[in-house]
Protein 1
Amino acid sequence: MAARGKSIAFARIRAEVIRLVALIPAGRFTTYGSIAIHMNVIARHVATVLSHLTPEESSALPWHRVVSANARLSPNMEPTLSRKQRRLLKAEGLRIDKDGYIQEADAHFHNMGVRRDIRWSEG
């Protein structure tokens, strides 16, 4: 029974990550951690959801606007995907240095909001 509860909780977390990422405006970015804090989950949950998007979700969702801590493109991302993320962010006017850090990050950061008191496993 616990596994089923976890599955329902993950489906709710997944839906909320997708909803929040869709709200990030063009020319702005946020971090896995900022979304996680707002949702009252860990950043790894957010990263897992985004790394398992369907091709349809990936093409419709601005996943490229979510980066690692310190406004850095994830150094662990597959190189082809990382290049695509860099290209998409640059097309929206963000400047990124050779090490993958977004320049003038404070001016482009999208704050997800305060931590919400959510219990994902509850119905």
Note: The first strand starts at residue 30 and ends at 31.
Protein 2
Amino acid sequence: MENTEEKEHERMRNAAIRVTMMPRDTNHHGTIFGGIILSYIDIAGGVEARRHTGHDLFVTVAMKEVIFHEPVFVGDLVSFYADTVKVGNTSITIRVIVEAERFNSRGKVMRVTEAELVFVAINKNREKIKIRN
């Protein structure tokens, strides 16, 4: 039987989302806008929050830290791996690691960005509610 650390590593390797970057997402330097990456990080974090809790509605309340390690280029296949760090009464903290498989270097994968986000559970009236565990 696998130990907990191996299971957690395997779960983290299950990408919340994968996206191929397109020319419409570039800035004047020819790299992907940081804001595009941030929006996908937000989506990936939301996917993990829902997977982990089973709750349907969350809002993003914080991006505690975002680190851009490497640029992302047009054609890169970008994977957003999300893992739950902490679950509170109404909030959940998610860490997202972003890796890019370079378009012109098949198989070459590098960490390009990482972030930590906090989401709060809400109801259909947008009121904060307790996360059901």
Note: The longest strand covers residues 109-121.
Protein 3
Amino acid sequence: MSHDSNSLLKPGNLLLSAPFLQDENFVRSVILVCEHLDTGSFGLVVNKPSILTLGDLVNELAFVDAEVFVGGPVEQNTLHFIYFGEKRIEGSVSLGKALWWGGEFDQLVNLLKNQELEANQVRFFMGYSGWESGQLESEIEQETWIISQENLDLPALHFESEKIWKHFMKNMGGVYREQANYPLDPRLN
């Protein structure tokens, strides 16, 4: 296990797909790393909307006007969430400044019902992105992923989905700023 990619990578980091990555699950994706352990890694694609709303999946949250995002290709029958603000839900994991992952779903439902948490402070995901031990490090070494140290914040999540990747690439500066404007297909240049 190489220490360079591993020491850089921690929960709360963002993985930006390389500009020419053609894997349909991850083209121009921004993945929030939620867990990075020796046994493997877990993340959520934050900029890939599904065609479903929260009400399609959870009847008791039909009143919440929220689209659901595709967190990744693994176990798309599972629902995950992140939220912004102070820690309000038992079992939530801190992913940086005012950003939390998961926790007790019933508590989340109650906070939303009582309007103690606004729908725009929460993002829901079907499925997740997962890597076995050493797999993510290997993909980083192969330059499939670019690690951004920038924290995900609420304003960035409210950009149009296809602009989120470009936003984080540009903010990294240098060669990444240039790559942010590359066409999806290099043959179109």
Note: Residues 14 and 152 are 7 Å apart (CA to CA).
